[in-house]
From TrEMBL:
<dbReference type="InterPro" id="IPR027417">
    <property type="entry name" value="P-loop_NTPase"/>
</dbReference>
<dbReference type="Pfam" id="PF02881">
    <property type="entry name" value="SRP54_N"/>
</dbReference>
<dbReference type="Pfam" id="PF02978">
    <property type="entry name" value="SRP_SPB"/>
</dbReference>
<dbReference type="InterPro" id="IPR003593">
    <property type="entry name" value="AAA+_ATPase"/>
</dbReference>
<keyword id="KW-0547">Nucleotide-binding</keyword>
<dbReference type="InterPro" id="IPR036891">
    <property type="entry name" value="Signal_recog_part_SRP54_M_sf"/>
</dbReference>
<dbReference type="InterPro" id="IPR022941">
    <property type="entry name" value="SRP54"/>
</dbReference>
<dbReference type="Pfam" id="PF00448">
    <property type="entry name" value="SRP54"/>
</dbReference>
<keyword id="KW-0733">Signal recognition particle</keyword>
<dbReference type="GO" id="GO:0005525">
    <property type="term" value="F:GTP binding"/>
</dbReference>
<dbReference type="GO" id="GO:0030942">
    <property type="term" value="F:endoplasmic reticulum signal peptide binding"/>
</dbReference>
<dbReference type="GO" id="GO:0005786">
    <property type="term" value="C:signal recognition particle, endoplasmic reticulum targeting"/>
</dbReference>
<dbReference type="GO" id="GO:0008312">
    <property type="term" value="F:7S RNA binding"/>
</dbReference>
<keyword id="KW-0256">Endoplasmic reticulum</keyword>
<keyword id="KW-0378">Hydrolase</keyword>
<keyword id="KW-0342">GTP-binding</keyword>
<dbReference type="InterPro" id="IPR000897">
    <property type="entry name" value="SRP54_GTPase_dom"/>
</dbReference>
Amino acid sequence: MVLNELGAKISRALAAVNDASVIDEAVLDACLKEICTALLQADVNVRLVSSLRNNVKQRANADKGAGINKRKVIEKAVVDELCGMLDSGLDDKKQELKKGKPNVVMFVGLQGSGKTTTCTKYAHFYKKKGFKPCMVCADTFRAGAFDQLKQNATKAQIPYYGSYTETDPAVVSKQGVDRFKEDKRDLIIVDTSGRHKQEEALFEEMRQVAAAVQPDLVIFVMDGSIGQAAHDQAKAFKDSVQVGSVIMTKMDGHAKGGGALSAVAATKSPIIFIGTGEHMDEFEKFEAKAFVGRLLGRGDWRGFVDKIQDVIPEDDAKEELMDSIQKGNFTMRILKEQLSNIQKMGPVSSMMAMIPGMSNSPLFGQGNEKQSQARIKKFMTMMDSMTDKELDSNNPKLLMEPSRMERIARGAGRSRMDVWELLEEYKRLRQLIVGNKGAGGLMKHMPKNTKGNMNPHNMQMNIAQMSRMLPPAVLKQMGGAGALQGLLKQMDGMK
Ligand SMILES: Nc1nc2c(ncn2[C@@H]2O[C@H](COP(=O)(O)OP(=O)(O)OP(=O)(O)O)[C@@H](O)[C@H]2O)c(=O)[nH]1
């Protein structure tokens, strides 16, 4: 999860308001001071921070209520202001690719911003969505650029085009685009060259390539670690070519990422994705509201369902599985299959950050990505040592037999304590999903015939029942029963 620290600080400041017995001016000021300091540390522009502070104060003071109501007003005002800060205000739907026609997308940016890596991530993302992407190397400036693109494209199994001899980027890009149009490729990505700094030669070259390939969309790739300096860079590119959207890279572990995001939004350029690591899957769709939700540890169901749909095809097997779980079957084998799907979805920690409360889970949430992966791997190894009877049993007690635990531990080269930890997590998830003996649990509230999707629409969950089912710490992390209700509404809106 990007910007972990910033999110944790803001959440802490809001939690202090929740814990205060009376919310007076001093409590509000202390909360805002903490939030503003955190934003300034993330390099958010001081003017934006000051406007957040004034607006939240104004809204809080305009509310004459007290107690719970006032807390809600403050929290909502902070969330709204953060969303406003990160939202360019433009409709980025226009930037979406259209199926059934060749979409030519040109990538621009400074050298080293992560352009080539991002082109590959973008291609990989749309390949999973059923597009036929390909990549054209228009970088004739940097020796080795074509080799790098070739290497990335080969790894992602994406066709590519480039030349070792042609020196005119406009010519080589036009040749590549024409070739791939003939091949009926529907996503043609043109990777242009960069320079160390903004200079006229770069802008002129970008204009020539754009004139040659007539892109449907120009994406500006920018390094998020430069903080609020991103404002001037985004503006300079926007003024030179018709930049349609922005992708911000290197949002992993960079304290200044928040500043960069807000600075770009201020130039009215929609950010469509963020890069969160060097690997292909470390790439997230960016949407201000969902991002703020994740930042504050409140999850993002839309992103979660999107990820699930990426790896689990909509087929009858899935329909059968949903039916079976709905009948109260949640076996160790099902858990094993789901863990294996999670492994395919990319970084576990970013996946789990989308589920409210999961950032607290002993299985996924604690520690870093490496530890989460290691925990899943450890669990999978122990499941590999189980017999078919154990994997398919619907009775957790069977697995608690000491001789079985001993055998599984020995087979997997783990301790009995490890097996016990797995069984406890299995029982906890089982209880959460199917409830006791199939009575209750999340699945009970899923509508029948989900046709492959979770389809949270029409899901009528009993909030009080769910609140009781969740461990108190998890419920608290989610923001209490009120937040749970908000979450269900959010799920309901995801038709
Ligand atoms: N940590 C991190 N590293 C990234 C990310 N995106 C790209 N990188 C790294 O940034 C470095 C530069 O990336 P490139 O894709 O070569 O950059 P480029 O903009 O194409 O560079 P030129 O081809 O020279 O213009 C590489 O080491 C990438 O692995 C990201 O989201 N996070």
